[in-house]
Amino acid sequence: MDLGLKAKNAIIFGASSGLGKAAAHSLASEGCNTTLIARDSEKLKIVSEEILQAHKVSSDFVGADLTKDNDVSSLIAGISDRKYDILINNTGGPPPSNPIDTDNNVLQLFVKSILLNTIRITNSLIPSMIEKNWGRVITITSSGVVQPIDNLSVSNTIRPAVTGFMKTLSNQIAEHGITVNTVMPGRITTERTLEVNTQRAKSLGVSYDEAISISSNEIPIRRYGTPEEFASVLCFLASEKASYINGSNIRVDGGLIRSV
């Protein structure tokens, strides 16, 4: 199936590892030129070189920390003249915490990176999409948007706000050929799930492997997903084939969320 992505320009956040890296490879495999964003420039350089060698498309990168307003301002200034077709918003998750012990400084830090600066970046790229009458804004959130996850109180608080903003945006710019969707990963094998399951093993008093087994058995498919499986959904949403999907909050969770 030709997804109609050849020569499209995509900017992918959190692209140095995990879901962002998988998304960058998936889009590049369909012919997209990629700009990779994350804090660690050395890791980004490696991913960019992998993409160049594997997919023969253009790939560049910019190191930026979304918790730092100056980094975000510099980033926006640097990409303002680039005509991106596809934006993949993807920000690192807050550390595990329960509601009673939530640290206000941590909450404020991740409100800035996950919510406020995601909005700033998104709004900076929308005008060029409107000019072209085509665009895709895809934001990776969390299954905690629908079903709050134990010991992830900060994430459970912020991600729904991001979802609300993106849904509102989707209603306002769809007439310009721009679709806006959010995608909720369930339990996908990444460094993030390593962190969460390490904490879960500690709280349950079991080994890490036992925690993974318990967690996997809660998923109807009985296993964790792979970053590549998740990225294939993002790639489809970015494509011409998904032109009538807008304002949706899509689950990629193996059936983990029990509600309809």
Break the fold down into its secondary structure elements and pairings.
Elements lengths: L8 E5 L4 H12 L3 E6 L2 H15 L3 E5 L5 H11 L6 E4 L14 H29 L2 E6 L12 H21 L4 E8 L5 H14 L3 H9 L10 H11 L11 E4 L8
Parallel strand pairs: 1-2, 1-4, 2-3, 4-5, 5-6, 6-7
Keywords summarizing the entry:
Rossmann fold; 47% helix; globular; 260 residues; 8 helices; alpha/beta
Overview of this protein structure:
By secondary structure, the protein is of the alpha/beta class. The chain has two domains: 9-188 and 227-252, NAD(P)-binding Rossmann-like Domain (Rossmann fold, 3-Layer(aba) Sandwich); 189-224, no CATH class. 47% of the residues lie in helices and 15% in strands. The protein is built from eight helices and seven strands, in the order βαβαβαβαβαβαααβ. The protein has helices at 18-29, 41-55, 69-79, 104-132, 153-173, 191-204, 208-216, 227-237; strands at residues 9-13, 33-38, 59-63, 86-89, 135-140, 178-185, 249-252. The radius of gyration is 18 Å and the shape is globular. The model has no long low-confidence stretch (mean pLDDT 96).
